[in-house]
Amino acid sequence: xxxxxxxxxxxxxxxxxxxxxxxxxxxxxxxxxxxxxxxxxxxxxxxxxxxxxxxxxxxxxxxxxxxxxxxxxxxxxxxxxxxxxxxxxxxxxxxxxxxxxxxxxxxxxxxxxxxxxxxxxxxxxxxxxxxxxxxxxxxxxxxxxxxxxxxxxxxxxxxxxxxxxxxxxxxxxxxxxxxxxxxxxxxxxxxxxxxxxxxxxxxxxxxxxxxxxxxxxxxxxxxxxxxxxxxxxxxxxxxxxxxxxxxxxxxxxxxxxxxxxxxxxxxxxxxxxxxxxxxxxxxxxxxxxxxxxxxxxxxxxxxxxxxxxxxxxxxxxxxxxxxxxxxxx
Length: 329
Ligand code: NDP
Ligand code: MG
Ligand code: MG
Known about the structure:
With 329 residues, this protein is an alpha/beta fold. The protein has helices at 26-37, 51-58, 66-72, 82-93, 109-112, 133-141, 160-170, 183-198, 200-215, 220-229, 231-249, 252-265, 268-282, 285-295, 299-309, 312-322, and strands spanning 3-4, 18-22, 41-45, 75-78, 102-105, 123-129, 148-154, 178-180.
């Protein structure tokens, strides 16, 4: 697989273009400021009334409506929550698109699952930083960049791919390297990762371990430290140097337990279920379920949030974290 760096990207492709960053949230604030610092002309489409509107003003932008921003721009970067993008696109962006414009996404969901269906005469590309927006901004100001994926869905101008690479350079991505993917690959792997491993798999693993200890009569505070708090220390070691680096740091006792007990916790049955989750992503069942959930006003999401907030791991954790003066409140 080829990595692309600064020297592979031509920022002159960004010159003479007006960029409309729609949404000044996590990704939006980072893309808008990084692009501006890279010499691009940037306008911000952000609805009034909230913190993000004030933040955009504090950062020296004059936020306008999504429709106004789309109208004056050549490049429209849609950085709204996935479930909001379809409506805003239909009402505010589509009526203001012109042939040769570029639509840019940081995640492929709405294009891949057909919630946004752009006309044939615009370019549709993705530049997806592999990190949260606040890191994308901070790392850029330090002279480095967060790695990105880029992809082309539709190339009407003939320069969509080069443009996406130039954009990745504009937000700092090529400083550390960017990889090429497709909308399908990015969307499906992103959903799978968050469901099976990063969010769904991890939270259920931590919670089950905590419950097992508490149900066996151990103090919940001790269970919290063992099953949740220490997770970060382990993950940091894996992040910095892979599994072997982590196993090098832990005791032989821990390492032996890891090799012999781990496969009894995450079993072939778990992997078979992972495959079923992946199939539901690939055939659109998950997307359909989530789209309908949003049409129902997120009824299930609200209920599940409320229920998990009451779990003892959260109440015990809140008390313990209050004692940890080094944690950001
Ligand atoms: P955020 O949730 O941080 O974005 C919120 C922005 O959308 C705010 O400007 C908010 O305005 C606006 N907004 C929310 N609802 C509406 C609405 N109904 N009408 C108009 N504006 C609205 O999004 P992210 O930055 O997290 O995500 C943006 C895109 O980037 C997504 O496609 C996501 O998948 C992708 N992405 C996100 C990453 C991340 O780490 N967060 C990483 C990589 C990609 P207000 O303040 O007024 O509510
Ligand atoms: Mg995701
Ligand atoms: Mg131990």
